[in-house]
């Protein structure tokens, strides 16, 4: 990786880019800057659903992939592959089963239920599709781009925990019990990604958890 020295201090350029992107992109997302809406408005297209999810594909998948390609590297070096799929399927099954037992009771009342009832799409298909699109890029930027880039410089252990920090802060505004758990959930997802050399399996687990939560909270299960 290239380095830059300023005032006698050496900076890893790739690491700087990663840290800036995983800080700025969520801010743009939070403040409602919508590249997809901008394109749709330019084309005069209205009534498109899941625009927020499509924005996150742009921010959290397309932008990191573009950076990786500009660096002259392969996306597979950042977990964009199936990796160790046999182990990945085991982790996916264990994660989904374990979280099902917890969420079956947790999402049926209190703030979890009231939060997701107000936000879940009306149809089961809408929940599954919208959640998948929303989380695919989200998982890549944390459990792919950030994790593997940080690990190259800092090692896997620190990278697993550091990438979970912005991931946890992105849950502010959600039910407290969910938000407080995300530092551990983010680290667990990253551990699975590192073990399998792929962000796909954390994505599948996260997709299941988010969809299952909405289905329970909205009374569809």
Give the secondary structure arrangement, pairings included:
Layout: E1 3-6, E2 9-12, H1 13-30, H2 35-43, H3 51-70, H4 85-106, H5 110-117, H6 124-154, H7 156-162, H8 164-169, H9 176-196, H10 200-217
Antiparallel strand pairs: 1-2
Helix pairs in contact: 1-3, 1-6, 3-6, 4-9, 4-10, 5-10, 6-7, 6-9, 6-10, 7-9, 9-10
Summarize the structure.
The protein contains ten helices and two strands.
Structural class: mainly alpha
Terminal residue distance: 49 Å
> Overall pLDDT, averaged?
91
Number of domains as seen in the coordinates: 1
**Oligomeric organization of the protein chains:** single chain
Order of helices and strands: EEHHHHHHHHHH
Radius of gyration: 18 Å
Report the uncertain regions.
Answer: none
Strand order of the largest sheet: 1-2
Sketch the major β-sheet: 2 strands, antiparallel
Q: Work out the helicity level.
A: over 70%
Count of runs of 4 or more consecutive helical residues: 10
- How many strands? 2
State the shape: globular
Strand content: under 5%
């Amino acid at each position: 990786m290239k380095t830059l020295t300023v005032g006698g201090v050496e900076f890893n350029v790739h690491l700087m880019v990663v840290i800036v992107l995983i800080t700025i992109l969520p801010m743009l997302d939070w403040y409602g800057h919508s590249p997809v809406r901008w394109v749709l408005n330019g084309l005069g297209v209205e009534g498109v659903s899941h625009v927020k999810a499509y924005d996150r594909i742009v921010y959290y998948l397309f932008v990191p992939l573009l950076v990786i390609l500009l660096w002259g590297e392969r996306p597979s070096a950042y977990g964009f592959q199936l990796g160790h799929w046999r182990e990945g399927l085991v982790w996916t099954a264990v994660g989904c089963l374990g979280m099902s037992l917890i969420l079956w009771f947790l999402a049926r009342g209190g703030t979890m239920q009231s939060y997701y009832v107000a936000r879940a799409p009306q149809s089961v298909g809408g929940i599954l599709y919208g959640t998948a699109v929303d989380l695919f890029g989200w998982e890549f930027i944390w459990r792919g781009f950030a994790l593997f880039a940080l690990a190259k410089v800092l090692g896997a252990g620190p990278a697993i925990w550091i990438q979970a920090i912005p991931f946890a802060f992105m849950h502010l505004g959600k039910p407290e019990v969910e938000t407080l758990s995300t530092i551990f959930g983010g680290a667990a997802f990253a551990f699975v990604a590192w073990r399998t050399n792929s962000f796909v399996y954390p994505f599948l687990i996260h997709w299941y958890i988010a969809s299952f939560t909405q289905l329970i909270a909205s009374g569809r299960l």
